[in-house]
Amino acid sequence: MANLPPSLSIAPTFAAPGALIAAPGVSKDQNMATAEQLVLNLCNPELRERALLDLSKKREFFPDLAPLLWHSFGTIAALLQEIVSIYPSLSRATLSPGQSNRVCNALALLQCVATNADTRPLFLAAEIPLYLYPFLNTRIKSRQYEYLRLTSLGVIGALVKVATFIVQKIMLDDTGFRYICETSDCYIALAIVLAQMVDSAEHHSPRLLKHIIRCYHRLTDDASACSILHKYLPISLINGTVNKYLQDDLTMGLLQQLVCRVNSASRGPHTVLAHMMGM
What we know:
Protein name: CCR4-NOT transcription complex subunit 9
Strand content: under 5%
Pfam family, one: Rcd1
CATH superfamily of the largest domain: Leucine-rich Repeat Variant
Mean pLDDT: 81
Order of helices and strands: HHHHHHHHHHHHHHHH
Low-confidence stretches: 1-22, 268-279
CATH topology of the largest domain: Leucine-rich Repeat Variant
Helix content: 55-70%
Distance between the termini: 53 Å
Number of strands: 0
């Protein structure tokens, strides 16, 4: 547990499955004790499945979960073991729903680590995303594979905040763009992550906002992505709220073109154009 703060130090004991489930309304110390025990249970193969489920479902109650997961001895190794254990099932197309759910819970915990500002650089330096690429390369359409791909995209999406420029460069490359737009799962997940980033970018990073707009604009070059993008485009991009944060005419022009393209491609009585009050 190198570099683990004293408040996060934990003793190597295991609790019975289901004995500890955090709940709203309990004290911070109680929640932390619950998180510590569940993290320890991850290293016990007999208790791991239940611990994965409880931690993934209750992770919002554990504000220090990310550093606890990263710095606790053997925990990340246990999560990676869960991931690589199903690789043979991917190649043989024998993945069961139970296997998929279990690995998705492990991926949810990795997303927690990827989201945290303190553990994100360590996560990237360890090249943990490389373990997720086999999931993204599957082409089987059954539900358990779809969940696995979407959850993996969620982990990678958590890293977009530090890699939006790289994502933009990938999208500008024809091969990278075709890969992103090959399935609706990919471009919808990207659109959702970009939408989540807009609010913070508005006030704190006009440069990031510029890259977000360019990524959205590039998505409109694909007809399928453009046709559903109105569902995922933040209202602040549509009604002119972000205009005052844009620093150049080129980005403003791309935003106007983005909204016009999405409006033209959208279907139904409520079009994007109805919200364009600030353009």
